[in-house]
Structure formats: C-alpha cells, structure tokens
Backbone:
C-alpha cells in the first residue's frame, strides 16, 4: 500500500487546505498516510508563495524532496498551493523531479494526482484559484484541541504590495449555515478553541448577503455551547464593526484579542499601499477599542522599507508604535513581488536600509512587549496546554494565538494533558514568554454566557 506524506508550509489558511487533503487521502483505502517523506512513496508539499522568504522555503523543501527521489527513497512528488498557482508554467519545467502540480483551487483532486504519479504520469493540474470547501468534506485536524475555520477565501482589497488576490482570487464567503455545521462537527470531536480565519474577516458576507455580517455569524456560532474559546483572525481596522466589541463583552468565550493588520502609519505610505484610513483614524479606533474592552490584546503586522519610505516616514512609524504600544507585533521587510503595483514604484529602498529599520523597530517593540507582559506577573490566567515535554507544559493564554504569540511555560505540571485549560499564576514575564504555576491541577471551564 503506497505511503503518502504531506508537508504543509505557510499560513493557517494553507493549513486548512492541507487538512482537507489529508482527509481525502485518508478516505482512500488504497493509500496510507505516513509522517516522514523518507518513509513515503509519494510526498506532497503544500507551498506558500506570498513573499520572497516564503517562496525560498517552498523551493528548498521541493529540492530536498527531489534529492530523496534521486536517491530512490521517493517514487513521486506532488506540489500544490500558492507557489504553484502563481508559477504554474515554471515549476514542472524547472524542477524535473516534480511529477504533478495542483493549485489553490484544485488541491481537492489530490487522490487523482496520486494515482497519476503511481501510473508514472506527469501533468499540470493547476486551474482556477477558488476552492469552495463545505463542512461535510473529510478533514484531519492537525491539533486535538483547537481548529481553524476558514469563513472566507480570496481577497478584493488590492493592497499594492500584495499578490494574494492574484493567487487566491477575489473575496468570497462561505454561508453561515455551512460554517455552523462545521463548528458543530468540530466540537463533537472535542475541539475547545475555534479560530475563525480569512484574509479579511471584517468583509465577511458582503458578497453573498449584500452586506457585512460578521457579528451575525458570530451570534450564530455562539449558540453552540460546547467550545470554550473563539478567536478571530484577521480584522482589517478600516472595516471593523464596533458591534463586534459589544459581543466580546457579552460572551467571555470570545477572546479579547484582535489582529489588526495595519502595515504602516504614515499617511503617505498608506496611500501608496492602497490602504484606506489615515493615521489619525487608526489612533481613534484603537483608543475606542481599548475604552470598550480595557483588557484587549492588540496584534498588528507592519512593513518596513516600502518603496518611497523616507526616514521621516519611518520615524512616523516608530512614534506610532511607541504611542500605541501594541501587545503583539510582527515586522516584515518589504518584499518586491512581481505582478504587484508596488513592484513598479520608485525609489525602491535598499536592502541594508530595510534591515537596519527592521532591527530598530524590533528593539523598540521588544522593550514594549517586556513592559506590557509585566502586568501579568502575580495574576491568575487561563492557559490552554498545547504541548508537553520532559521539562514543561507549554500553553497559551486566551490573549495569544497559536504559533505566533506568547507562550506560557509551566515547570511542574503534574497530570496535565494536551488541550487542558488550567488556572495558572504567572511568576515571571519576558518579552515573548511567561513562566507560571498551576493554581489547581485542572479547571473545568464553564460555557460562555
């Protein structure tokens, strides 16, 4: 029986696609899933092609598999995801070891692709970018206690630096009934944290209902009382509905956490980025959010070295970060991506200046993050356990998303299991990590109001 291994790269949205592929493969009784490519007959790579670093990681992974194939450890390689959707006419030509490529809209044909490889066929299976999955499709969740639910796909914002609309297509929403059905199924499997994801959550529904209905969707989701945390990724500040903040206050299962992709504060740079909303409007919104939800944790992502960013624009960004004091912050050096409007802008910022600005901004944010985290010392927080090793139980508070935010290390964790939610007193705090001790070994968390 052929063994199939899958490597998933990139974002959480890609992870959902990988889980759907795993579900389809697992439903094929003639195939078996294995963990390591070296143990497999066929290896699948679900790639990311968003920025240069992601493309390089994807290509390096493909080349590592190509070496295994040359050594006779693999019979075939299938590549899918954003990289193939973006470069569908190049990959098969440039990397002869790759047998089949699928795209962001055709990965559902994974079993047909596997059969083709086993029959020693080679073809390009990339098609339209949209894959509209439904709740009744088989899916193997990567984690036993939290799951991502993709409520929309694609993007219609057309930020000048971003290739996503060309890779994933225009924004489209799943309907409320289907999303609810998926969440109901996930909670029967013991999922405790539901993470809603989309390129832009706040536009949810505008294409199928004629208006944005994210709050209505969340109200329907909250009728399910079987999960403990509901997290939202990602909410564009320009279209954030204030009704959402009221919902956060009404039901404590909605994590007091918002990821607001801002990218820059300079009005000049924001205009060049084709982002709506001014610096002043952003500050006003952030203050309003914090007034309504005092314990809210705000994450954002920023870009340094965008074309035309002068020292005064970067100084504006530094001042903005110092004033807002984001709890979580990711910084990217601008990546010049062919096919985007920003790739044609001049002047492009030299790489050494991007690097220097990146480090200056991160130094400031490290100090802010350290000081922000000190407020947790001595407090008791709910912590969801994600991992156990010989030294620590490692978890997250409801203020932290998986893989990107703070982790809580618990040295003496008794009989805790992955997925447990515990009351934990924070004893030490650093820039990105907390140290804690359990107040009692395990707590039963009550459903939301």
Residues:
């Amino acid at each position: 029986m052929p063994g199939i291994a899958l490597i998933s790269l990139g974002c959480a949205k890609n992870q959902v696609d990988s889980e759907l592929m795993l579900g389809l493969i697992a439903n094929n009784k003639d195939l078996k899933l294995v963990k390591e490519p070296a143990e497999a007959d066929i290896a699948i790579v679900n790639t990311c092609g968003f920025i240069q670093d992601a493309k390089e990681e994807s290509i390096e992974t493909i080349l590592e598999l190509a070496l295994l194939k040359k050594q006779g450890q693999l019979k075939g390689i299938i590549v899918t995801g954003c990289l193939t959707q973006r470069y569908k006419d190049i990959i098969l030509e440039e990397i002869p070891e790759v047998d089949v490529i699928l795209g962001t809209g055709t990965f559902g044909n994974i079993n047909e692709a596997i059969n083709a490889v086993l029959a020693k066929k080679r073809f390009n299976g990339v098609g339209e970018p949209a894959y509209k999955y439904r709740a009744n499709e088989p899916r193997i969740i990567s984690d036993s206690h939290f799951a991502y639910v993709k409520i929309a796909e694609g993007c219609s914002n057309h930020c000048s630096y971003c290739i996503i609309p060309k890779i994933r297509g225009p924004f489209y929403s799943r309907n409320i009934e289907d999303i609810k059905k998926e969440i109901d199924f996930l909670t029967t499997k013991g999922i405790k944290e539901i993470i809603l994801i989309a390129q832009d959550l706040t536009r949810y529904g505008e294409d199928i209902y004629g208006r944005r209905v994210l709050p209505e969707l969340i109200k329907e989701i909250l009728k399910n009382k079987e999960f403990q945390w509901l997290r939202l990724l990602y909410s564009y500040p320009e279209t954030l509905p204030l009704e959402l903040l009221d919902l956060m206050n009404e039901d404590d299962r909605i994590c007091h956490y918002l990821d607001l992709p801002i990218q820059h504060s300079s009005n000049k740079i924001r205009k060049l980025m084709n982002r709506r909303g001014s610096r002043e409007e952003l500050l006003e919104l952030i203050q309003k959010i914090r007034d309504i939800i005092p314990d809210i944790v705000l994450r954002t992502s920023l870009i340094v070295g965008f074309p035309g960013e002068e020292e005064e624009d970067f100084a504006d960004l530094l001042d903005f970060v110092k004033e807002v004091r984001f709890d979580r912050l990711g910084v990217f050096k601008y990546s010049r991506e062919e096919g985007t409007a920003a790739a044609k802008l001049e002047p492009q910022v030299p790489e050494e200046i991007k690097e220097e600005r990146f480090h200056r901004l991160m130094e400031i944010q490290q100090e802010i993050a350290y000081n922000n985290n000190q407020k947790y010392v001595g407090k008791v927080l709910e912590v969801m356990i994600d991992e156990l090793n010989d030294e620590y139980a490692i978890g997250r508070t409801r203020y932290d998303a998986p893989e990107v935010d703070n982790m809580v290390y618990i040295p003496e964790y008794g009989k805790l299991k992955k997925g447990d939610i515990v009351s934990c007193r924070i004893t030490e705090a650093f820039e990105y990590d907390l140290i804690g001790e359990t107040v009692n070994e395990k707590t039963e968390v009550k459903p939301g109001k």
Observations:
- The mean pLDDT is 94.
- The chain has 13 helices and 19 strands.
- Residues 351-373 form the longest helix (23 residues).
- The chain has three domains: 3-125, 146-374, 377-438.
